[in-house]
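I wish you would study the pair of lines that follows with an eye to the fold:

===
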Amino acid sequence: MNRSLYSRKATLSMKITEFEVPPMQDLLIIGRKAPVGPEAVRRMAEALSPDQFVIIKVEHPKIEAVLVRKTLFEMLDKDLLMSIVLEEAEGLINETMVLRSELKVAISVQREVELH
């Protein structure tokens, strides 16, 4: 009996979770009809981590604003980061949700120099 077994598998790893307390990760993505609004999230972030986060209001059908750790904008262009965040969150969020996300940035540098 010659039986051939065939299997295809994929492994996915994601770091996007629903909002919990304590909420401080790198990002909070706030739905338009979420039970907590951008101003309340800003005040909470300021109370827990003074001067470390900024609220960015966005024009999006499901997302009202994103709370972002300020240091991320020191490493990445604001518009680029926000477009990536909105694109990735769009399929996961509904208007009543608040998502939190861990975002790690790894910079890769390669230089070529003249040898004398």
